[in-house]
Amino acid sequence: MTTTVSPDTAPSTITAYPAYAAPAANAALERTTVPRRAVREHDVLIEIKFAGICHSDIHQARDGWGEGIFPMVPGHEIAGIVAEVGPGVTKFAVGDRVGVGCLVDSCRECDNCEAGLEQYCSGGSVATYNGLDKEGEPTYGGYSTHIVVDEAFTLRIPDGLSLDVAAPLLCAGITLYSPLAHWQAGPGKKVAIVGLGGLGHMGVKIAHALGAEVTVLSQTLRKQEDGLKLGADHYYATSDEATFEKLASTFDLILSTVSAPLPLDQYLSLLKTDGALVNVGAPEEPVSLNLFSVIGGRKSLAGSGIGGIQETQEMLDFCAEHGLGAEIELIRADEINEAYERVLASDVRYRFVIDTATI
Fold first, then answer.
1. DSSP string covering 131-153, please?
2. Taking 90 as the threshold, does the pLDDT of residue 272 lie above it?
3. Phi, psi of 122, rounded to the nearest 5 degrees
């Protein structure tokens, strides 16, 4: 079955491009066309080559984080080539290798935007998909052949990174790089990554490249060999209660990448005094906490969301310098629905990437 995405107020200057969309919450994604605005003064038209599948795509397509905007074209891990530029564009030229992450606009005026923290825009950032732009039109993501984005929210992908392995860096990469940088992971620091999936495997790579001593905490030892190859120094199974006894008061920083609620009190016991447990995975269910778990040891329980545009470019440059791309499984567009189920079953090592030439 084929659907057509047709915003009621779509301007006459739009162009329809092939895409895959969820017509309703929990529905299978279907081939469709998606409207893209004409290139404006500071816009770039990107021919998308690859789009990563993020677990958040599944959460949103299935209303796991609240009511979504449908039809929904997911995808905020986008890598491609500039096909057209607006007359005022100065940062990019036709043929440049570029990427788009989770944001396509922000207010650009608030304190957070001024500080390069567009992801925390107090005026309301514009999500790459499942959002509304400043004209009130729905935004559509990277499961498409083309996208139009303001140059201010377009990233340059260094030549040292292949586009297919670079695409997941636009969410998974920056989601881990930002807290690792903020909490100053590096030599002399002990960092634990909870979960070795799409996010976690990039956390291991980046933390190792930053010089930290890296431990993976996973439910089982099933991926231990992979974790050590990716750069982990240690690997423990959290299903073994002895793990929490052995590692008590060990870590300066723990990054949780999982989308299921954790027994936070147990994980906080693994921190040193002044350590931080930072959540980058977002469970759909509430979590519980005994406050004595943070009071004792002056520990911090925090969260972190992607990164600003400048920091995302910094991350891409860092990954290129250190040869860090995502571990991917390239799929055809007609395999998206199957890929969603495999992500939920933890049956991917470690990121599905759509070859958009198959849309």
1. SB-TTSPBP--SSBSEEEEEGGG
2. yes
3. -75, -15
